[in-house]
Amino acid sequence: MIAASLTAAAKLPPTQSAYLEGCGGCHGIDGRSYAPKVPDIAGQAGFYLCTQAGRRYIARLPNVDFAHLDAQQLASVMNYVVFTLGGGSAPAGAPPFTAAEMAAARAETIDSPDLMRVRAGIIAGILKTCPAARGLLAYGAP
Fold it and tell me: Which among 135, 123, 142, 141 has a CA at the least distance from the CA of 44?
């Protein structure tokens, strides 16, 4: 009986499984992490779609870029992150990521040694468009 329950519980949709394998260890099973050290994405990830710069930023992050997924799988994971885990934080009408967009993003990974500085500039722009995104500031806070 217990073995059957464990087997049933382990079956996840491929996109959610890919998220858990590649992202969940740091960002948490449900997108909740220890925000001062790792960005929370639950209820917030969609805010990155408030600006084109934010959208490009999350698609170009090193761990996204180097994920062991093809472009379509990666687009599906990104859409799961921003539209499902993001819990309504994406602006109305924001288009989903496409395989072509993710393939293009992989061609231009963020190569700055100061990713926190790059992120701070992106967040400043997002806050001008989406003031409700203030929770994005928790990452890196003392």
Answer: 135
Domain membership flag for residue 128 = yes
Whether 105 maps to a domain, the answer reads yes
Q: What is the largest CA-CA distance in the chain?
A: 54
Q: Is residue 16 part of a domain?
A: no
In a domain, 49, yes or no: yes
Query: What is the spatial distance between Cα 130 and Cα 48, in angstroms, rounded to a whole number?
Result: 9
Instruction: Give how many domains the chain has, as a whole number.
Output: 1
Amino acid at 130: C
Q: Is 9 exposed, middle or buried (0-12, 13-18, 19+ CB in 10 A)?
A: exposed
Quick: pLDDT tens for 46-101: 999 999 999 999 999 988 988 999 999 999 999 999 999 999 999 999 999 999 99
